[in-house]
Amino acid sequence: xxxxxxxxxxxxxxxxxxxxxxxxxxxxxxxxxxxxxxxxxxxxxxxxxxxxxxxxxxxxxxxxxxxxxxxxxxxxxx
Length: 78
Prior knowledge:
Shape: elongated
Number of domains: 1
Order of helices and strands: HH
Helix content: over 70%
Number of strands: 0
Distance between the termini: 18 Å
């Protein structure tokens, strides 16, 4: 395996790891927001607005990061 092939494979695996990680963080953020909403509706309310704001922010960051990593990976594969 050449150094170039090794770099490409390393970046491919790193992209998969980053994508999966941000997906997990976004899922956990939405989970917390939905749990908070249910607490708001059914009692013992906590910071629902803050939780939804956090979930939206994490989702936006994840989408942007995944988008740029994917574009960079496409350029690396050309």
